[in-house]
Amino acid sequence: MKSLVVVAALVLVACASSIKEEWQQFKLIHGKTYRSLVEDKNRFSIFQDNVRMIQEHNKKYESGEVSYAMKVTQFADMTQQEFLDLLKTQGKADRPRNALEFDSTGIEIKTAIDWRKKGAVTAVKDQGQCGSCWAFSAVGSIEGHLFLKNKTLIDLSAQELVDCATGKYENLGCKGGLMDDAFKYVEDYGIQSEESYPYEAIDSECKRKGYAVKIKSFVDLKDEKEVTAALLPVTASKGPVSAAIDASTMPFYSHGIVDKRNRCSSLLKDLDHGVLIVGYGSEDGVDYWIVKNSWGADWGEHGYVRIQRNVNACGIALYNSYPVV
Length: 325
Prior knowledge:
The protein is of the alpha+beta class and 325 residues long.
């Protein structure tokens, strides 16, 4: 009996040592520093809770109870409420919109398309602690459509939108915004390249000086009925499409397809995060969207998430638009 107790104690010590090593590695990888030892201790406790939750979720993934796996990400030292508060700063999509109808007559729908493979998608970015998802979604869509028009892929400035597409455009910089309002700004003023106006992840003074690209207008898919009918042909024929989703359950997404079993909402009022649809496909009979996020390339599937198609999972078919370049 004593030997069993000793073995159990050794296992506990090994586990404690492992989680502490993982904590130190987490802080190193993500550049995490805290104001005091007390805060470090509190964050470590939250980290441990999240690691346990991730492990339990992945057991369900292995048994087929859930459709995607989780991993430790930059959000692992945050409580669920802190992550939700971060998303709440993104801006809500539930106000009236100006919309044009999309005519999908005669468009050939391929079984799968990936605009990354066509060269129409720039590298994944990391918005950091700034609620600028809307800006990255908008510039990503413009980048893709510009490439498909003239075969030139340019990284455009999300920071210009954060700094300048405010005021009458109703965006709030790092406190949130909407892709449509970003498109309106680029229609009026154009937008500079990322090289000439680099990302800082903070609200700053507008430093607009000319532009690299200007758009003619933008198209909204008006409502859920039209989106259901048009989102697939739009993505297939036009290029990447900006979208809003409920991302509240995705901080630790690793790989797999987020399906209807996920706890995310499919209601317009709960949309809290701007992303970019860059293609679609199917796996084991499940149709999915390929979605580019702005949480860095270490998150998800190299910065991307696959979300189930045809069922409005996480509200992905409720708020969609693309630019006319």
